[in-house]
Amino acid sequence: MVGWAIALHGGGGDIQLDYPDELRIPREIALRHCLDVGVSAFKSGKPPLDVVELVVRELENQPVFNAGKGSVLTAECTIEMEASIMDGKTKRCGAVSGLNTVVNPISLARLVMEKTPHVYLAFNAAEAFARAHGVETVETSHLITPENIQRLKQAKEFNRVQLDYTSPGPKAQGYHGESQTG
Amino acid sequence: TVGCVAVDSAGNLASATSTGGYVNKMAGRIGDSPIIGAGTYANHLCAVSATGQGEDIIRGTVARDVAALMEYKGLSLTEAAAYVIDQSVPKGSCGFIAVSANGEVTMPFNTNGMFRACATEDGYTEIGIW
To answer: Does the CB of A86 have a partner CB in chain B at under 8 Å?
Structure first.
């Protein structure tokens, strides 16, 4: 048998080499914190499913990443969070989409896996499921950051969708507003 | 997008992914993160969580492709991941993290960068962007 292992990400994209320190350093600190949470969970004997849920909850709680608090905004200035979780041993899985008040979507995805015969709940039904199970919710405004309001304004200015870490501008990588696919 | 994959010393695997999607996306658009087999997958061989251009990740069935290459072609996790990041998705569109049942870890991406970190029981730790 081998030892445990864990990996995590905070999103990828067009991260330029001159990415400003004031943006980079808080994300690196958040990554380190979330990695430490996962390592501690393994050392305390938690199973992998608990570890990945715990770590993603921590990542969702970090406003510097695009999930949970800090989620980016749709064209209608709304939030639509989504998440999924899967257990490799049993292939059980759960997923949610279209959430706008749930603090930790990943935990709701796990509830879909464990408390329903289904794999995927979305939008109003997913929000109702969260309330039925006493999942922590907040007003949507608590999940929106000033930075993401600004990012939406920039994206609308160029009439483009914008991936994680894409810098504003019509020629930047990650803009796909003219794509006819997807 | 954020994600985490993990394997314990008995080879049990799990994967989780969460996201807010794209800035300025159409309301109602679903990305790859909640799609099992696209942005998230785990079986008895590996666990995968992806980030990037969701539509490309869905078309490429990225997470499931890694597992399938291991299952049907006998590739190692690193080999399967390298194939998928090179062949299954357009350059500049995707990155993912993955672990295998025997403790392999890989974090490939074909974008400029990906915020990522990993640790193993033997004390190895890595945090990276580019």
So the answer is: yes
Distance CA B57, CA B77 (A): 18
Predicted ipTM of the assembly: 0.97
Contact B16, A60 (CB under 8 A): no
Three-state DSSP at A161 gives coil
Per DSSP bridges, beta strands A93-99 and A120-122 are: parallel
- Calculate the alpha carbon distances from A36 to A41, A44, B7, B99, B118 in Å: 8, 12, 16, 17, 10
* Sites in chain A below the pLDDT cut of 50: 171-182
A88 closest CB neighbour out of B12, B28, B119: B12
Using an 8 Å Cβ cutoff, are A108 and A134 in contact? no
Structure tokens at B25: 């996306």
Nearby residues of B17 by Cβ (< 8 Å), 6 or more positions away: A56, A83, A84, A85, B1, B2, B3, B33, B34, B39, B40, B49, B50, B51
Task: Identify the residue whose tokens are 């849920």.
Answer: A53
Across the interface, whether the CB atoms of B51 and A52 are under 8 A apart is answered no
- The first and second tokens of residue A94, run together, are 């759960």
